[in-house]
Amino acid sequence: MKHSISLGLLLAILWWCLSGYPKPLLLGLGAASVVFTLWFAHRLDVVDHESHPVHISGALLAYWGRLTVEILRSSAQVIGTILSPKPAIAPYFLRVKVGQPSDLGKVILGNSITLTPGTVTVLVNGDELLVHALSPVSGEGVSQGDLDRLIPADCERQA
Q1: Helix axes 57-83, 136-144, angle to 10 degrees
Q2: What is the distance between the alpha carbons of residues 117 and 134, in angstroms, rounded to a whole number?
Q3: For residues 51 and 116, what is the distance between their CA atoms, to the nearest angstrom?
Q4: Strand order of the sheet with strand 128-133?
Q5: HEC states along 102-127?
């Protein structure tokens, strides 16, 4: 039940943000759409701890905040590299051990590494990632496991 309620709130907030008009007709249509979507999702039995993980919402918000900081920091480093008269570009591959026990944690880590400028996750193999880095500076955070430690440990916990 808590998953349906949180999904309904999320859909209502999304509707409000995307419509931007506080007119009664649009608010009524939005409410009807949210109710229909919740009913349909309930009928299909697709609202559960995996589709809407309420139990890790706080940890995910903290992770997204830190990921945003890492993306901005990496962007500044890549911009500095590009604009320097003698860019220190030395692309290389590095293998990184993953501390995530679940497949979902490994996917989140690989995607997070790819989102940060200057690094791309090329391969996930067991408990190891193959990452391409633009320079030693951009690969430094990946090799130290900064993002790996930030991923919520209970991302597959049953609710």
Answers
A1: 160
A2: 9
A3: 25
A4: 92-97, 128-133, 119-125
A5: CHHHHHHHHHHHHHCCCEEEEEEECC
Structure token digits, residue 150: 């930030």
pTM of this structure: 0.65
Separation between Cα atoms, residue 139 and residue 116, nearest integer Å: 10
- The region that residue 45 occupies, defined by phi over 0 for left and psi between -120 and 50 for alpha, beta otherwise, is left
> 103, 92, 98, 87: which is closest to 140 by C-alpha?
92
Query: Tell me: the pLDDT tens digits for 38-94?
Result: 899 888 887 765 555 666 667 778 888 889 998 999 999 889 888 988 887 889 999
Residue 145, by phi and psi: left (phi above 0), alpha (psi -120 to 50) or beta? Answer: left
Q: In 3-state terms, what secondary structure has residue 155? A: coil
pLDDT tens, residue by residue, 104-152: 888 888 999 999 898 999 999 988 999 999 988 888 888 888 788 878 7
108 close to 155: Cβ distance less than 8 angstroms: yes
